[in-house]
Amino acid sequence: MTTPDNFKTRLEIAKSKIKKKVLSEGEKRGSLMGNAFKLGTELVAAVGVGTIIGFILDSWFGTTPWLIIIFFFLGAAAGIMNVIKAANRMQKED
Amino acid sequence: MANNPMQQFSVHKIGPEIKIAGIDLSFTNASLFMVVSAALIGIFLFLGTKEKKIIPDKIQLVAEMFYSFVAKMISDTAGSKAKPYFPFIFSLFMFVLLCNMVGMIPYTFTVTSHIIVTLIMALFIFIAVTIIGFLKHGFKYLSIFVPSGVPTVLLPLITIIEIISYLSRPVSLSVRLFANMMAGHTMLKVFGGFVVSLGILGGWLPLSFSVALTGLEILVAFLQAYVFAILTCIYLNDALNLHH
User: Fold this and answer.
1) B175: chain A residues, CB-CB within 8 Å
2) In contact, B191 and B213? CB cutoff 8 Å
3) Interface of B with A in 166-185 (CB under 8 A)
4) pLDDT tens string B47-72
5) Which residues touch A26 (CB under 8 Å, ≥6 apart)?
6) What number of other Cβ atoms are within 10 A of residue B75's Cβ?
7) I want to staple A79 with a disulfide (CB 3.0 to 4.6 A). Which of A24, A46, A65, B160 is the partner?
8) What gap in Å lies between CA A11 and CA B122, rounded to an integer?
9) Which residues in chain A are contacts of B122 at CB distance < 8 A?
C-alpha cells in the first residue's frame, strides 16, 4: 500500500489540489479587479507627465507652444505603451 | 450638519504649533491617524506573534495569513531575488491597508486621501527602485530605456517614450490610491447628505445606496493596498531582473 511511488503521486495530487484552491474564486476575482483599477491611471499619468515635461522644456528653451504639443503626443504614446505592457503582463499570468 | 462633502478632508492642527527652522511641523489630525494606523499594526502583529502555537488561535491565524499573502505576492511577481525586500513591502502593504481601513470608520480621517501622503510613498519607492537598479546593474540599468528589436530609425523616439513611461510610474502609483480613496469617501458623504435632505419619505433609496457603497469602499480599500504593494513588486522586479 504505502510504497514510495504511491506516496509521491498522492503528494502530487494533494499539492495540485492546494494550488487549484488557492487560485479559485476570491483571489482570482480580486486580482482581476486590481488589474482593472490599474489600467486607467496608467494611461492618464503618462499623458500628464509628458505634458509637464514639455511645459518645463518650453520654459527653458523659449519655444512656447511646440515642445508641449510634441511631448503631449509622446506622453500619450507612452501611456498606450504602459497599458499594452500591463495587458501583456496580465495575459502572462493566466 | 456639515453640508460640504469635501470638509472631511480638511487638515487641522492638534495641540501646540511646532515650528522648526521655518517649517511647520505641528501635529495634525493626519499625523494622529497615521500614528493610530501604525500602532494598530504594531499591536495586531504583537498579539499575533506573541504565542507561537502550532495550532494557531484566531489572531495568529490572521497575522500568518497576511504574512503568507505578501510572501506569495512577492515570490510570484518579483521572484526569489526580492526576498530581502519583504519587510519593506510588508510594512508598506500593512500601512496602506490600515490607513484605508481606519478611514472607513465614521468620524475618522483618511490619510491616504491626500495626494501628498501617497506621492511621498510613491516617490520613495521610485527613487529606491532606481537606486537598487543602478547598484545591481551599474550603467547597464539604462538599457531598460532601450527595448530590443527596434529599428534604429525609431530608437530615439522609443527611448523618449520609455523615459516618459518610467517617469510616469510614481504619478500613476500615487494618483491611483489618492483618487480612489478621495472619490469613494466623497461619494459616501454625498449620498449621506441625500438621506438627510430627502427625509423619512425619500431617504431610503440613497440610504440603501450608502450601505452598498460602504461595502464597495471596503473592497476598494483592500484592493488599492494590494495594487500599491503588487506594483511595488513589479517595479522591483524590473530593477532586479533586467532582461532584454
Assistant:
1) 41, 44-45
2) yes
3) 167-169, 171-172, 175-176, 179-180
4) 888 887 788 888 888 999 999 999 98
5) none
6) 15
7) A46
8) 43
9) none
Interatomic CA distance for residues B37 and B103, integer angstroms? 10
Instruction: Work out the widest C-alpha separation in chain B, in whole angstroms.
Output: 70
pLDDT for residue B23 = 78
How many Å apart are CA B96 and CA B220, to the nearest integer?
A: 12
DSSP state, residue B13: B
Q: What is the pLDDT of residues B164-185, one digit of tens each?
A: 889 998 998 999 899 989 989 9
Under the banding of pLDDT at 50, 70 and 90, the label for residue B2 is low
Report whether B111 contacts B99 (CB < 8 A): yes
Domain ranges of chain A: 29-93
Distance (Å, whole) CA B33 – CA B102: 8
Determine the residue type at B238: D
What's the pLDDT at B153?
86
